[in-house]
Amino acid sequence: MPYAWHDTAPEQSGAVCFRLEVWPHRALPRRGFVWVIGLTAGFLALPLVAVVGTAVLWGLLPFAALAIWGLWVAIRHSYRVPQEVMLLSREQLELVRSDPGRADRIWQTNPYWVRAVLRANGPVEDYLVLTDGRREVELGAFLSPEERVALRDELTRRLGALRG
Q1: How far apart are the first and last CA of the chain?
Q2: What CA dihedral angle connects 148, 152, 154 and 155, to 10 degrees?
């Protein structure tokens, strides 16, 4: 699942808090990034071996290097993804959404009133929103419908545990 729960105990109050981190799927993990760049460099070097020691090598080498650099930049750019972090305690719920190139958006409320709801008419199937009766915020719009349902169930369970 592209989300993780962490149980924490704040030093000042000693009460149990939950930290939820949500991120979109990554098709290529960081270890795979190293393999892709390495294999690409290796396969691009194979035809260059035939022209080692000639002036043609210096004509082809910048294009091979440019191809590897372009792949590197494109894959690194794909890792700049939105992330949502929610801190949940008995006193406060704080949701922080971090988008690349934008200021963080923060939503704070009393968790007693928060409900996790799936909307059928949202921009995505099983659109997950948190509502406190006055305001709604989306959570995990980049997750699959099954993951949003599972996240809603876990979130409802943890909110219920904090209430009573």
Answers
A1: 28
A2: 130
Alpha-carbon distances, residue 162 vs 7, 11, 18, 117 (angstroms): 13, 18, 10, 18
Cα maximum dimension of the chain:
77
Q: Provide the residue-wise pLDDT of the chain in tens; the chain has 164 residues.
A: 688 998 876 555 556 688 999 988 888 888 899 999 999 999 999 999 999 999 999 999 999 999 999 999 999 888 888 899 999 998 899 999 998 889 999 999 999 999 999 998 888 888 999 999 899 999 998 899 999 999 999 999 999 988 87
SS3 track for 37-91:
HHHHHHHHHHHHHCCCCCHHHHHHHHHHHHHHHHHHHHHHHHCCCCEEEEEECCC
**Which helix (DSSP H) or strand (DSSP E) does residue 3 occupy?**
strand 3-8
Predicted TM-score (pTM) above 0.85: no
Using only the alpha carbons of the chain, give its radius of gyration.
Answer: 23
Q: Are 151 and 128 within 8 A, CB to CB? A: yes
Residue 96, Cα to own-chain centre: how many angstroms?
12
Q: Does domain 3-25+84-163 have CATH number 2.30.29?
A: yes
Q: Which amino acid is at 103?
A: A
